[in-house]
Amino acid sequence: MAAERKRGVPLRSDDSDPLRGVEDRGGRINNLYRCLANSPVLLEAWTDFAWTLRADCETPRTLRELLILRAAQLTGCEYLWDDHVRFGKEAGLSNAQIEALSCWRESEIFERGERAALGLAEELVTTGRVSNESLEAVESQFPSGQVVELVLTVGFYAMVPRVLDALRVPLMWQPQAGVPPFT
Length: 183
What we know:
Elements: H1 17-24, H2 31-36, H3 40-55, H4 61-75, H5 78-91, H6 95-100, H7 112-127, H8 132-139, H9 144-167
Helix pairs in contact: 4-5, 4-7, 4-9, 7-8, 7-9
């Protein structure tokens, strides 16, 4: 049985001016953008920041996608998971990396820098804080500019599930009954 969308901010049509702007800039229209299009200036700011995090940083895209997927797991956000499994695979993540993500501490598939970044991400998403030990571990693996990129990536994608929930943005797909895609 498909979940009904709870009342929330309406989704704008794909042919609305703000959404044409998304396509003109090379983006793919999704339900989050349809919702954010109710505030065109914030839709543009959102996409500018999100797309900068995804495309214009020095840290490896695969690492940033791992952090985004971990944020999706920790928040139980199917919408974010669905989008970023695709983005992660396009960036070069393997199925094995994605499957091992929920047990990254026990897995041997992740390298030292990835482990440090995943530890930081887990703390930031679950507590809103990062311990000195976690920050030092990341700082020992990445230059300062990349530490900023990693923290901003995790911070932004820890916020995304809250926005999706608060605005009642519906999934772009129908999940299989009882089988979340990220377990």
